[in-house]
Design a protein that fits this description.
By secondary structure, the chain is α+β, with helices and mostly antiparallel strands. The chain has 14 helices and 18 strands. About 35% of the residues lie in helices and about 25% in strands. The strands form 4 sheets. Strands 1, 4, 5, 6, 7, 8, 9, 12, 13 and 14 form a 10-stranded mixed β-sheet that branches. It starts with a strand and ends with a helix. GO terms for molecular function: hydroxymethylglutaryl-CoA synthase activity. Keywords: Transferase.
Length: about 400
């Protein structure tokens, strides 16, 4: 029985800041951002969007009534969750109107959370082939204004429906994975911003890729030549390239050129959204699927997932016949085309807007946010969520 990605979609806030403008405002050469880390634009989340609403909006794009009837598990990978007890998955389950007979759980291991969700979903589907699992990767990366990590911020969510007989990507069962207790990136519960040892984290990312790739080759006998493309977790778009280039010299020239070209295609969306933590790898996959026009069914795709702290995994899948029909390329083109560019001053003001830390009541202006699902405010220490589409149906 084949199990894999049946549907995939993503959502990002309706605002962004241009990285060249941000560099100038910070007294940095623009090429440091646009070439050095490979970022052009950075999505900016308004106060009316959080990881729950980003994920729910992304899911609205792809779910139909058949999905709602068959989804009996919601797995939410995030490292910017909103509650230390209640899972973000429960909120999304309600906002999407999924059936009550379902499990809903939040998963945390830095940027690896969504990958963990996929692997757990595969096991569930193997036992219950009639079921579907909704896997969400949603985060808002925040390091603070004028910090060293500011240029690798971002916001967005990727969602996937995992099922038997998948129509996009059938996942193989030859995964290679590795865990090691390291302190390259972490965020204690008392801190609003993460701590990072940047040089060490970059080194560990490459090291983990090398190790799981070696393990994968020994397990399967496959090599780089067997892949049409390899997608990477991308906190910034140059990160994956640092890992890939360490292995490319072991391939023939045509394989090197193919993988380099397809790597660049796979970074297109990430370059203009920024870092979305748990969803970054799958935004890279989506970029490849929608931007490479001659991608063919039967092509083998490699995926490298990395979550600081750290867990890494290399796994693979095969594109299915007619996979293009399951994509939402036009919707995603519209999402990018309709975003509003912010000045650096506007971005800074929006960044400083946060929900009350003392649980006090606040009502937010959701009319200024075009998204269907928004944070409407807070009351009695509870976030209030609104699904505008549901309100329209009720009227």
């Amino acid at each position: 029985m084949e199990i894999g990605i049946d549907k995939i979609g993503f959502f990002a806030p309706h605002m962004y800041v241009d990285m060249t403008n941000l560099a100038v405002a910070r007294g940095v050469e623009p090429e440091k951002f646009t070439i050095g880390i490979g970022q052009s634009q950075m999505a900016v989340a308004p106060i009316t969007q959080d990881p729950v609403t980003l994920a729910a909006n992304a899911a609205l794009e792809i779910l139909d009534e058949e999905d709602r009837a068959q989804i009996d598990m919601v797995l939410f990978g995030t490292e910017s969750g909103i509650d230390n007890s209640k899972s973000a998955a429960v909120y999304v389950h309600h906002l999407l109107g999924l059936k009550a007979e379902a499990r809903a759980v939040e998963l945390k291991q830095a940027c690896y959370g969504a990958t963990a969700g996929i692997q757990l979903a595969k096991g569930h589907i193997a036992l219950h082939p009639e079921s579907k699992v909704l896997v969400l990767g949603s985060d808002i990366a925040r390091y603070g204004l004028k910090t060293s990590g500011e240029s690798t911020q971002g916001a967005g969510a990727v969602v996937m429906v995992i099922s038997a007989a998948p129509r996009i990507l059938a996942l193989d069962n030859d995964n290679a994975f590795l865990s090691n207790d390291i302190m390259d990136f972490w965020r204690p519960i008392y801190s609003e911003q993460a701590f990072v040892d940047g040089k060490f984290s970059n080194e560990q990312y490459v090291h983990f890729f090398n190790e799981v790739w070696k393990q994968y080759k020994e397990k399967t006998g496959n090599d780089l030549a067997d892949f049409e493309a390899i997608c990477f977790h991308l906190p910034y778009t140059k990160m994956g390239w640092k890992a890939l280039r360490t292995e490319l010299p072991n391939a023939d020239e045509s394989t090197q050129e193919r993988l380099k070209a397809n790597y660049q295609i796979s970074t297109a969306y990430n370059r203009n959204i920024g870092n979305i933590y748990t969803g970054s790898l799958y935004l890279s996959l989506l970029s490849l699927l929608e931007q490479k026009e001659d991608l063919q069914a039967g092509a083998k795709i490699g995926l490298f997932s990395y979550g600081s702290g750290a867990v890494g995994e290399f796994f693979t899948g095969t594109l299915q016949p007619g996979f293009q029909r399951m994509l939402k390329k036009t919707d995603h083109e519209n999402l990018f085309a309709t975003r509003r560019e912010l000045t650096v001053a506007e971005y800074e003001k929006i960044f400083e807007e946060t929900l009350p830390k003392d649980g006090s009541t606040i009502e937010l202006d959701i009319e200024s946010d075009p998204a269907a699902i928004c944070v409407a405010g807070m009351q009695d220490n509870k976030r209030l969520y609104i699904n505008k589409e549901h309100l329209i149906e009720q009227k």
